[in-house]
Amino acid sequence: MLDMLLSPNGFPFAIALGLFAGLLALELIALVVGGSLFAFDMDADVDLDLDVEADVDLDGDASFLTWLGLGEVPFIMWFASLLAGFGLSGVLIQTGAVALFDAPLPAWGAGLAAVIPGLLFAREVGTLILRFLPRTETSAVPRSQLGRRTGTVTQGTAREDSPAQARVRDRHGNLQYIRVVPAQGEDPIPQGSEILVLTEQNGVFRARKLGA
Q: N or C end of the chain, less CB within 10 A?
């Protein structure tokens, strides 16, 4: 395996596994001095507020990113899982190629083939990590960080001049209840609708109905 990683055909996977090892080493050093990279990342999520005026269709993108686990677990944890999944998938792919064809695949071909397994690995590891994340920090999550998350209208119909209640799951997996109105120029959102939360203004969130 080491020979394969050191060859040109294994270069992308050597880089990925090297970065993964580097992150682990930095985490160990941080733990020795009484800190943690992962703990810092949990407290420093990027505010992903979206401009409700944008004309880009965000429904599919937001749902896909949520499915991958982005925003559900600290990014450094997710990225480390992606590096490990991509690197290990590449090693397995090249090992299989040598066994079947007596030669490894080109680096670009094996790299493309390893992307999907790497993403799936990161998603599964993220799901596992999510079960062990502390769930007592919900009140510390800024409301602005609920943007770009999906939810459900639970009470009333959301109109421009009449907010409705919606249920949204925050990055720790806990439920929060917010008031929502439709994105500007969009129709009222009836109770029971799935929504994509956008931006907050004066305690009320703009939301877009999914599947509309």
A: N
